Amino acid sequence: EMVSVKDLSEKIGKPAAEIIKKLFLLGILATINQEIDFDTAALVASEYDIELEHKMDKTFEEVLSDEDHEDDSKDLENRPPVVTIMGHVDHGKTSLLDVIRSTHVTDQESGGITQHIGAYMVNVHGQAITFLDTPGHEAFTAMRARGAQVTDIAILVVAADDGVMPQTIEAINHSKAAEVPIIVAINKIDKPGANPEKVMQELTEYGLVCEDWGGDTVMVPVSAHTKEGLDKLLEMVLLVAEMQELRANANRMAKGSIIEAKLDKGRGPVATVLVQNGTLKVGDTIVAGTAYGRVRAMLNDKGRRVDEAGPSVPVEVLGFSEVPEAGDVLYAVEDDKLSRQVAEERRNKQKIQQMKVMSKVSLDELFSQIAQGQVKDLNIVVKADVQGSVEAMRQSLEKLSNDEVRVRVIHGGVGAIAETDVMLASVSNAIIIGFHVRPDAKAREAAEKENVDLRLYRVIYEAIDDVEKAMKGMLEPVY
Ligand code: GDP
């Protein structure tokens, strides 16, 4: 079995130049593409304390994903739904999260102090629901951008005295892009100016039609202050969850996502893990992003030490080598060495990727991307100064769809281009078109980092013209 220096470098996560030097010291003159035999490769690897025992034609990452096999349906059991609360600022997201937590965690369960670990579980008629504690679509999409899809159901909060607002629309579009079902909580119905019917009317414009009006979106009038409607809301969550058939296999090594992570002065790296499949146990070897380690201890959302956590259960985990990032996917693995080696492989890859620009859709390259079959949908985020322009752009752009490529405006909104627009564009492989608006500093930075094509126009016709030309491969590149 032979392996090139380059492959070995990628596999063990060490620079090729270092490996070449080590080979030289062993009396072997090698170049980066040179093939060396397995024993030599193993010897070099052992100098880094890495044991080459897996087949060399697979990366450790691939070995890891092999372990991530599909479950037999007979091993699957129902698991609790994981819910994120989204909506416009001040419509009551935090109030709802607080009141649900305080009313549905029983005293003996809580044992005094509830811990804010990023997620909590409540009990509704003996059935569990997991709530993510960071409300809003920003966190939701940031997690998705890192690969974690944890939310099963989005509760969209709309204040009955305020109605549909820009962030309401964003939340709808972000949920739709993730294909997460939406339950609407029409909040603040205790207020004198509350008008739930008007909210329902406004929501129809965004494709959310309540069941009474022949649609299929569950809408529940609630008040975080008087607690009216809360039980119904939670029952509806369970109902929608039941239709989704959320299932997992508790009897396997855990897979989950990092919800939050920090460096704790006394305890070292601490991360909240939402287990999504399997059961995480104290003592398990774990890897998440470029962090690895062994579960030293786990604490639940009530601050209690636990020995294991099953599907949909959030736990604080101690024992990581470094602080993982929110959205990183966590695996527990049988093999101690595997976790460390996967982490190293990733760190190496990260370095390589930071150097080379990832291929995202761009107007300049659209034509060749279409030709190579890389692009079938041209997704666009439109931001403009007035709603009328958003609609005009949407209609004209979507009309450009042809047999090769479908043009879709996945989000349209009024106002400056924000970081969340860029994150949505990034995860949806979309371009951004701004009309009479500019990106703020954070958005510009994010667009550069995420390599999102962001274009600004002052004439609608020019925007349409550019997209049309790009689709035909006739766009003049701008230098
Ligand atoms: P968030 O920004 O969406 O998290 O909104 P908050 O939960 O912080 O609530 C914003 C304001 O609305 C606060 O002053 C809350 O007390 C108030 N509020 C939230 N829910 C209700 C409600 O059901 N009824 C009334 N009257 N006020 C509410």
From TrEMBL:
GTP binds at residues 87-94, 133-137, 187-190. Its main location: cytoplasm. Residues 81-229 are annotated as: G-domain. It is found in: Cytoplasm. GO terms for molecular function: GTP binding; GTPase activity; translation initiation factor activity. Residues 78-247 form the Tr-type G domain. GO terms for cellular component: cytosol. Keywords: Cytoplasm, GTP-binding, Initiation factor, Nucleotide-binding, Protein biosynthesis. One of the essential components for the initiation of protein synthesis. Protects formylmethionyl-tRNA from spontaneous hydrolysis and promotes its binding to the 30S ribosomal subunits. Also involved in the hydrolysis of GTP during the formation of the 70S ribosomal complex. Belongs to the TRAFAC class translation factor GTPase superfamily. Classic translation factor GTPase family. IF-2 subfamily. This is Translation initiation factor IF-2. It comes from Gehongia tenuis. The gene is infB.
